[in-house]
Design a protein that fits this description.
ten-stranded mixed β-sheet, globular, 16% helix, 310 residues, single chain, four-stranded antiparallel β-sheet, 4 helices, 2 domains, Immunoglobulin-like, alpha+beta
Length: 310
């Protein structure tokens, strides 16, 4: 055995291979959601080749930032935002704020774009800036203060123009599916409780859902998955958790009613995330509804309720 390993060690098992990669053409990347009661927002960036690394751009601490939190909106210098929203000892808020700053520094933000969202025949131009959405843990670089109406009959469209490139997409809001009931039960062997959220699927149409379960704050996600109604079409449906909530905990339950495109985007995004860097995984193409670019433009309508474990 020793002789065999010695011979193997003596062999040169390395070989350099040159691969000629085609020149990569960067594309516009859009992430934008229309949500009733919320202002218009869009993140417009630029794609990089797989081998290209982002170039960090230090962020000016005096840059004006528009913050959305708890249904309110205000604009402050970045340095004041941290002092206002990150309380001493609040590690979650601190991590979220640092994540926002890192996103601004690392993402290839496009600063010369014209971004418009059209609804009901009226176009609304989004202004360039820095927008932090603390409620949903998102950062954007284009925004408009117009509040999205609760309109489930008229499409929304987005168009982004930058450097002779155009990207556009269309989406709609679907009526939210409400909960029939939300209950919790305790494990007989300890004091931990499990949550069950019941709703009824509409058998008359194909439906897609995203279910999210949070403990205490929306930024703390315990569960997040998307599903179609293939296996429960028209039936009462329970989504729930394991026995993981203690007495005094606050469970925030959210059920999004989404379209197939957004469902497929979420599924393929997750698959691509776990396949990245794995030599044994199949490559995944992320589903997009953006013509002339990449990303997602989706309507977000949902039912949300809060339960305190007692």
């Amino acid at each position: 055995m020793c002789c065999v390993f010695a011979l193997m060690a003596a062999c040169n098992l390395e070989r350099d291979i040159d691969i000629n990669l085609p020149e990569y053409q960067s594309e516009i990347v859009v992430e934008s959601y229309v949500e009733p009661g919320q202002p218009l927002r869009a993140l417009v960036t630029e794609s990089l080749s797989y081998t290209e690394l982002p170039s960090p751009t230090p962020i000016d601490e005096n840059i004006l930032v528009t913050i959305s939190a708890d249904g309110q909106e205000l604009t402050l210098p970045l340095s004041q935002v941290e002092a206002l929203f990150v309380m001493p000892g609040d590690t979650i808020a601190e991590a979220q704020f640092e994540g926002f700053k890192s996103a601004i520094e690392l993402l290839g933000l496009i600063s010369d774009a014209t971004v418009t969202i059209t609804h009901g025949g009226t176009s609304h131009t989004l202004e360039e800036g820095i927008y932090f959405d603390f409620d949903n843990g998102k950062v954007y670089n284009y925004g408009n203060s117009l509040i999205v109406p609760e309109d489930y009959n008229t499409d929304f469209s987005i168009e982004v123009n930058s450097r002779d490139r155009t990207a556009d997409a269309v989406t709609q809001l679907l009526p939210p599916v409400t909960f029939d009931s939300i209950v919790y039960s305790f494990n007989a062997s300890d004091t931990l409780a499990a949550i069950q959220a019941w709703f009824t699927d509409d058998a008359a149409m194909d439906n897609y859902y995203r279910f999210m379960l949070h403990n205490g704050e929306v930024v703390q996600t315990d569960q997040d998955f998307s599903v179609n109604d293939r296996f429960f079409n028209g039936d009462p449906v329970p989504f729930g958790s394991n026995f993981e909530f203690g007495i005094g905990d606050t469970a925030i339950v959210t059920l999004f009613h989404i379209d197939q495109i957004y469902h497929d985007f979420l599924e393929t995004y997750e698959e691509a995330f776990f396949a990245n860097g794995n030599p044994f995984a199949q490559p995944v193409q992320i589903t997009t509804n953006v013509e002339g670019g990449l990303g997602i433009f989706a309507g977000l309508s949902y039912a949300r309720d809060t339960v305190i474990i007692e």
